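queue> holo job accepted (zinc ion)
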Amino acid sequence: MYCPFCSKVDTKVLESRLLNDSIRRRRECLNCSNRFTTYETAKIHLKVLKRKGHEQEFEITKVKKSIEMACGKIDNEIVSNLTKTIEMKILNKKTNAIKSAEIGNIVLNELKKTNKMAYLRFASVHKEIEDPVILKKELNTMIRK
Ligand SMILES: [Zn+2]
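queue> job finished
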């Protein structure tokens, strides 16, 4: 890390703080004694293979957005926990590339367990349920409850 004041590389870490998804470090330059802060975040290189053959860098924020949209107005914490669970499932596959449909299925499985309405909304938006018979069956199990 270069000092933003004098561009030398030798810095001393004064304090490290663990934040939600990053580590913040207060540093002091050993050359000019100026202080600055750096943030360290974990980056995962995972490619998402889209339906039409192109690739995209995996971003959990995109997954979270689609979950939020499917869930409508529910507790933020529920969405966050759901997103974390889904992220772990995806990362546990220990692969460098994943099909977008596969991510869709993981999301669907989790939504199915927690929120049936969100599950159906997600399924209809992402057209993961291509078979209308399956959709009808899902609706029927909901109506019966
Ligand atoms: Zn400096």
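queue> The pocket of zinc ion is lined by residues 3, 5-6, 8, 29, 31-32, 34 (CB under 6 Å).
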